[in-house]
């Protein structure tokens, strides 16, 4: 009877929350001070170099301004009305969207196939990895200049086709509006696929070998293992790469400007929102209009990025946060 009556008191004492003393408060303030000390410089740099320029661009976008002195000719939303009503800008947006879709469709499958190949134990795979990654680290100026010289009407590509008896395939690769955009996609794929392959290889290295061994014992073929094990577990890496590829495609400027120049990209059908901003803002001396284009480009990129994070990356981030929450609230075992 005495033991039975003592158990509820013990349980009540064990379940009672511990009083919060001054030591707990000092610990919380110390953590906050550490966070402020470590994150403060990064937040300051982000605000100064990202938030402030965006706000300044939004301010200048309401003026007709030539870049000299303080803006005084207030035009309100006229710059934005002109942008949205310009068919050249709409064509540039369509080109950007095409580049986004084509980059995902071309680079994604090729990167996964190359990563699967280079993840095998084959002779010379280290050299192949280096050769695939080298174009990514080459400057865009060098890449654009080299390809523009090779793709001229009398360039190396047409000369090579003639030397092997394929004169029918000779073409104006960068001047013909029918194929210029596809030429750009070939260059982009050659330039940036190395980055995608490195990401996929890193994702493959994180997949346990025991899963493949168990599937092999069960009689699964190589392609069945890739479909049932590799692709599902490689999903987070693919989604992160796709996000980076989308943002980069929306902001594409340097390759197009170097290969086609300021004025040819629109007639060749390869103009982008960034080249439109450069041509109609900086080159035309209309910096107020150029800032308005920059704001529109920022809004489009931000909307797509937030939408992608909301509908595609949400389960990855939720899983990470759920895991962190579960690990932080897990009670210690006796």
Can you give keywords for this protein?
15 helices
Summarize the structure in short.
This protein is mainly α. It has helices spanning 2-15, 22-60, 78-85, 87-118, 125-137, 140-150, 156-163, 180-205, 209-217, 222-233, 235-250, 254-268, 273-283, 287-311, 314-329.
Note the main sheet: none
Following the backbone from N to C, one meets helices and strands in this order, namely: HHHHHHHHHHHHHHH
**Beta-strand segment tally:** 0
Radius of gyration, taken over Cα atoms and rounded to an integer in Å = 28 Å
Gross morphology is flat
Helical run tally: 15
Strand content: under 5%
Average pLDDT figure: 84
Give me the secondary-structure category. Answer: mainly alpha
Q: Unreliable segments (pLDDT under 50, ≥5 consecutive)? A: 1-7, 320-334
Name the helicity range: over 70%
Distance between the termini: 28 Å
Task: Annotate the secondary structure layout.
Elements lengths: L1 H14 L6 H39 L17 H8 L1 H32 L6 H13 L2 H11 L5 H8 L16 H26 L3 H9 L4 H12 L1 H16 L3 H15 L4 H11 L3 H25 L2 H16 L5
Helix pairs in contact: 2-14, 4-8, 4-11, 5-8, 6-12, 8-11, 11-14, 12-13, 13-14
Please describe what this structure looks like.
By secondary structure, this protein is an all-alpha fold. It contains 15 helices and no strands. It has helices at 2-15, 22-60, 78-85, 87-118, 125-137, 140-150, 156-163, 180-205, 209-217, 222-233, 235-250, 254-268, 273-283, 287-311, 314-329. It is flat and about 75 Å long. The two termini are 28 Å apart. The model is unreliable at 1-7 and 320-334 (pLDDT under 50).
């Amino acid at each position: 009877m005495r033991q039975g009556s003592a158990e509820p008191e013990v349980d009540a004492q064990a379940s009672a929350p511990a009083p919060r003393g001054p030591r707990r408060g000092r610990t919380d303030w110390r953590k906050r001070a550490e966070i402020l000390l470590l994150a403060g410089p990064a937040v300051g740099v982000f605000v100064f170099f990202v938030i402030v320029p965006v706000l300044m661009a939004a301010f200048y976008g309401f003026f007709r301004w030539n870049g000299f002195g303080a803006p005084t000719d207030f035009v309100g939303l006229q710059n934005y009305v002109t942008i949205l009503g310009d068919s050249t800008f709409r064509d540039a947006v369509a080109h950007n969207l095409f580049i986004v879709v084509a980059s995902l469709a071309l680079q994604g499958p090729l990167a996964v196939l190359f990563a699967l190949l280079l993840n095998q134990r084959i002779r010379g795979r280290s050299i192949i990895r280096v050769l695939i990654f080298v174009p990514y680290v080459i400057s865009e100026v060098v890449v654009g200049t080299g390809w523009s010289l090779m793709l001229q009407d009398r360039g190396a590509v047409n000369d090579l086709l003639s030397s092997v008896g394929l004169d029918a395939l000779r073409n104006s690769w960068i001047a013909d509006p029918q194929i210029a955009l596809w030429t750009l996609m070939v260059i982009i794929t050659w330039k940036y696929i190395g980055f995608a392959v490195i990401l996929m290889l890193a994702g493959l290295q994180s997949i346990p070998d025991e899963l493949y061994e168990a599937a092999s014992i069960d009689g699964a073929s190589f392609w069945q293992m890739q479909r049932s094990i590799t692709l599902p577990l490689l999903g987070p890496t693919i989604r992160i790469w796709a996000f980076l590829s989308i943002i980069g495609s929306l902001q594409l400027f340097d390759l197009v400007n170097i290969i086609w120049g300021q004025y040819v990209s629109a007639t060749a059908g390869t103009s982008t929102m960034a080249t439109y901003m450069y041509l109609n803002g900086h080159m035309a001396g209309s910096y107020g209009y150029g800032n308005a284009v920059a704001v529109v480009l920022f809004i489009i990129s931000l909307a797509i990025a937030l939408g992608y994070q909301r509908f595609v990356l949400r389960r990855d981030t939720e899983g990470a946060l759920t895991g962190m929450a579960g690990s932080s609230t897990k009670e210690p075992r006796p």
